[in-house]
Protein backbone atom coordinates (compact mmCIF):
# COMPACT_ATOMS: atom_id res chain seq x y z
CA UNK A 1 0.00 0.00 0.00
CA UNK A 2 1.18 3.52 -0.81
CA UNK A 3 0.27 5.77 2.12
CA UNK A 4 0.52 9.54 2.14
CA UNK A 5 0.55 11.07 5.62
CA UNK A 6 0.04 14.84 5.90
CA UNK A 7 1.37 16.15 9.19
CA UNK A 8 4.40 14.82 11.05
CA UNK A 9 3.52 15.67 14.63
CA UNK A 10 3.06 13.06 17.34
CA UNK A 11 0.17 11.35 15.55
CA UNK A 12 1.50 11.58 12.00
CA UNK A 13 5.00 10.40 12.89
CA UNK A 14 3.66 7.49 14.93
CA UNK A 15 1.33 6.46 12.11
CA UNK A 16 4.11 6.78 9.52
CA UNK A 17 6.49 4.69 11.65
CA UNK A 18 3.80 2.03 12.17
CA UNK A 19 2.97 1.74 8.46
CA UNK A 20 6.65 1.74 7.49
CA UNK A 21 7.38 -1.08 9.97
CA UNK A 22 4.50 -3.04 8.45
CA UNK A 23 6.23 -2.84 5.06
CA UNK A 24 4.09 -0.19 3.37
CA UNK A 25 5.41 2.58 1.14
CA UNK A 26 5.00 5.80 3.11
CA UNK A 27 5.47 9.45 2.25
CA UNK A 28 5.11 12.09 4.96
CA UNK A 29 4.47 15.76 4.19
CA UNK A 30 5.00 18.57 6.69
CA UNK A 31 5.63 22.31 6.41
CA UNK A 32 8.40 22.17 9.01
CA UNK A 33 11.51 20.16 8.16
CA UNK A 34 12.35 19.63 11.85
CA UNK A 35 9.06 17.76 12.32
CA UNK A 36 10.63 14.78 10.55
CA UNK A 37 12.93 14.36 13.56
CA UNK A 38 9.98 12.56 15.19
CA UNK A 39 10.31 9.72 12.67
CA UNK A 40 12.22 6.69 13.92
CA UNK A 41 15.67 5.82 12.61
CA UNK A 42 14.08 2.73 11.03
CA UNK A 43 11.55 4.78 9.01
CA UNK A 44 12.04 3.67 5.41
CA UNK A 45 9.70 6.11 3.69
CA UNK A 46 10.13 9.51 2.12
CA UNK A 47 9.76 13.03 3.45
CA UNK A 48 8.42 16.04 1.58
CA UNK A 49 8.79 19.47 3.13
CA UNK A 50 6.03 21.83 2.07
CA UNK A 51 2.47 22.99 2.52
CA UNK A 52 0.17 20.13 1.53
CA UNK A 53 -2.63 22.57 0.72
CA UNK A 54 -0.47 23.43 -2.32
CA UNK A 55 -1.24 20.98 -5.13
CA UNK A 56 2.36 21.09 -6.35
CA UNK A 57 3.49 19.72 -2.98
CA UNK A 58 0.87 16.96 -3.19
CA UNK A 59 2.07 16.11 -6.70
CA UNK A 60 5.67 15.98 -5.45
CA UNK A 61 4.43 13.49 -2.84
CA UNK A 62 2.84 11.50 -5.70
CA UNK A 63 -0.72 11.79 -4.42
CA UNK A 64 -1.97 10.38 -7.73
CA UNK A 65 -0.40 7.04 -6.75
CA UNK A 66 -1.68 6.98 -3.16
CA UNK A 67 -3.92 4.18 -1.93
CA UNK A 68 -4.45 6.03 1.34
CA UNK A 69 -4.19 9.62 2.50
CA UNK A 70 -4.32 10.51 6.19
CA UNK A 71 -4.62 14.24 6.92
CA UNK A 72 -3.46 14.46 10.53
CA UNK A 73 -2.22 18.03 11.02
CA UNK A 74 -3.30 19.95 14.11
CA UNK A 75 -5.54 22.20 11.97
CA UNK A 76 -9.04 20.85 11.31
CA UNK A 77 -9.62 23.17 8.35
CA UNK A 78 -6.37 22.18 6.66
CA UNK A 79 -7.26 18.52 7.16
CA UNK A 80 -10.68 19.11 5.59
CA UNK A 81 -9.19 20.90 2.59
CA UNK A 82 -6.58 18.21 1.98
CA UNK A 83 -9.04 15.35 2.49
CA UNK A 84 -11.53 16.86 0.05
CA UNK A 85 -8.79 17.50 -2.49
CA UNK A 86 -7.52 13.92 -2.20
CA UNK A 87 -11.00 12.48 -2.59
CA UNK A 88 -12.45 14.78 -5.25
CA UNK A 89 -9.45 15.73 -7.42
CA UNK A 90 -7.16 12.72 -7.09
CA UNK A 91 -9.69 9.98 -6.30
CA UNK A 92 -7.54 8.51 -3.53
CA UNK A 93 -9.36 5.26 -2.58
CA UNK A 94 -9.17 5.74 1.21
CA UNK A 95 -9.04 9.17 2.84
CA UNK A 96 -8.98 9.76 6.59
CA UNK A 97 -8.98 13.12 8.36
CA UNK A 98 -8.15 13.93 11.95
CA UNK A 99 -10.60 16.39 13.49
CA UNK A 100 -9.98 17.78 16.96
CA UNK A 101 -13.32 19.56 17.34
CA UNK A 102 -16.23 17.10 17.67
CA UNK A 103 -18.67 19.70 16.30
CA UNK A 104 -16.61 20.10 13.13
CA UNK A 105 -16.32 16.32 12.96
CA UNK A 106 -20.06 15.97 12.61
CA UNK A 107 -20.09 18.50 9.77
CA UNK A 108 -17.20 16.75 8.00
CA UNK A 109 -19.03 13.43 8.28
CA UNK A 110 -22.13 14.99 6.73
CA UNK A 111 -19.88 15.94 3.81
CA UNK A 112 -19.04 12.26 3.41
CA UNK A 113 -15.52 12.37 4.86
CA UNK A 114 -14.17 9.57 7.03
CA UNK A 115 -12.98 11.32 10.16
CA UNK A 116 -11.33 10.29 13.39
CA UNK A 117 -11.72 12.63 16.36
CA UNK A 118 -9.09 12.05 19.06
CA UNK A 119 -11.19 14.11 21.49
CA UNK A 120 -14.20 11.82 21.11
CA UNK A 121 -12.12 8.64 21.01
CA UNK A 122 -10.26 9.63 24.20
CA UNK A 123 -13.42 10.74 26.04
CA UNK A 124 -15.14 7.47 25.14
CA UNK A 125 -12.15 5.41 26.33
CA UNK A 126 -11.82 7.36 29.58
CA UNK A 127 -15.56 7.17 30.20
CA UNK A 128 -15.63 3.42 29.61
CA UNK A 129 -12.68 2.89 31.95
CA UNK A 130 -14.20 5.05 34.67
CA UNK A 131 -17.57 3.32 34.41
CA UNK A 132 -15.87 -0.10 34.46
CA UNK A 133 -14.01 0.87 37.65
CA UNK A 134 -17.30 1.85 39.28
CA UNK A 135 -18.86 -1.59 38.80
TrEMBL record:
Keyword field contains DNA damage: no
Keyword Transport (UniProt): yes
Matches recorded under Gene3D superfamilies: NAD(P)-binding Rossmann-like Domain
Higher taxonomy: Bacteria, Pseudomonadati, Candidatus Hydrogenedentota, Candidatus Abyssobacteria
Source domain of life: Bacteria
GO CC annotations on file: plasma membrane
Domain RCK N-terminal: from-to ranges: 1-120
InterPro entries: K_uptake_TrkA, NAD(P)-bd_dom_sf, RCK_N, Trk_Ktr_HKT_K-transport
Species of the source: Abyssobacteria bacterium (strain SURF_5)
PANTHER family xref list: POTASSIUM CHANNEL PROTEIN 2-RELATED-RELATED, TRK SYSTEM POTASSIUM UPTAKE PROTEIN TRKA
PROSITE patterns, per database record: RCK_N
Protein name: TrkA family potassium uptake protein
GO molecular function: potassium ion transmembrane transporter activity
Keywords of the record: Ion transport, Potassium, Potassium transport, Transport
